[in-house]
Amino acid sequence: MSISVSSRDAGSELPVEERPLHRRFAQGSPDAIAEVVSIVRSIVQHRGWFIPVDERADISQEALLDVVRRSTSSVFPTDEDFGNFVRVIAHRRCIDWVRARRTQYLVGSGTSGSPGPDVKLLTRERQQLACAVVSRLKPECRQIFGYHAGRGMTYAEIALALGRTEGAVRMQAFECVQRARQLLDRMVGAVTR
Questions:
Q1: What is the pLDDT of residues 26-58, one digit of tens each?
Q2: Is there a contact between 148 and 155 (Cβ–Cβ < 8 Å)?
Q3: Nearest CA to 142 among 170, 181, 176?
Q4: Which end of the chain is more exposed for a tag (fewer CB within 10 A), N or C?
Q5: CB contact at 8 A, 170 and 164
Q6: ∠ CA(149), CA(150), CA(155), 5° rounding?
Q7: Domain covering 117-192, topology
Q8: Are 53 and 101 in contact (CB under 8 A)?
Q9: 16-107 — its CATH code?
Q10: According to the model, what pLDDT value does residue 193 have?
């Protein structure tokens, strides 16, 4: 939404404290800057983001720089929306932080982009557990899993390969998945007991 600047909007007739927030902020009013900083900090410091205290200042600064950059463009929200505009930017910076943190966690601590040793160990354990479960299934189930997961075949293609109907293959796959879940529960339960 673009804003047309009228003489009243420009603040020529209004005292500084009655001008719209975005105008006072753009003009460098200390109280407007303090209000925007307060909005950003309240969002960044919210405990739901789980952002460590030592990283909050950087995220707040990034959000404030983004507010300044966007609010100095020719199109930015009106005063009623300016507070929400600031909140959205602060939330976006927090989401960016969470995504970056999640990516670091998933990739591991390796700097070369390769998974860290903890991720490799977890992957290997999951593969071993999956192999143990699949090896205990009936040969028909292993065959369907091999076609579907291993070769990426659809149920219709599997049915054609086995000379059966698609519905029968789907039903057998469902039963095989249930059986695999039961085996997995038993195996994991035996380890945790």
A1: 888 899 899 999 999 999 998 878 888 888 899
A2: yes
A3: 176
A4: C
A5: no
A6: 50
A7: Arc Repressor Mutant, subunit A (1.10.10)
A8: no
A9: 1.10.1740
A10: 46
Residue 157: in which H helix or E strand, if any?
Answer: helix 155-162
Query: Whole-model pTM?
Result: 0.48
**φ/ψ (deg, to 5) at 164:** -125, 175
The secondary structure of residue 47, as a DSSP letter, is: G
Domain layout of the chain by residue ranges: 16-107, 117-192
For helices 53-71 and 79-107, give the axis angle rounded to 10 degrees: 130
Structure tokens at 176: 């095989």
Residue 51 CB contacts under 8 Å (≥ 6 apart), including other chains? 44, 45, 59, 94, 97
Q: Look at the block and give the residue holding tokens 């909007």.
A: 9
- pLDDT value of position 51: 86
Mean pLDDT of the chain: 81
Rg (CA), the chain: 29
- Indicate if the pLDDT at residue 25 is higher than 70: yes
Residues above pLDDT 70, as percent of the chain: 77
Contact 44, 94 (CB under 8 A): yes
> What confidence score (pLDDT) does residue 75 get?
67
| Chain centre distance of CA 85 | 21
Distance, CA of 12 to CA of 134 (rounded, Å)? 77
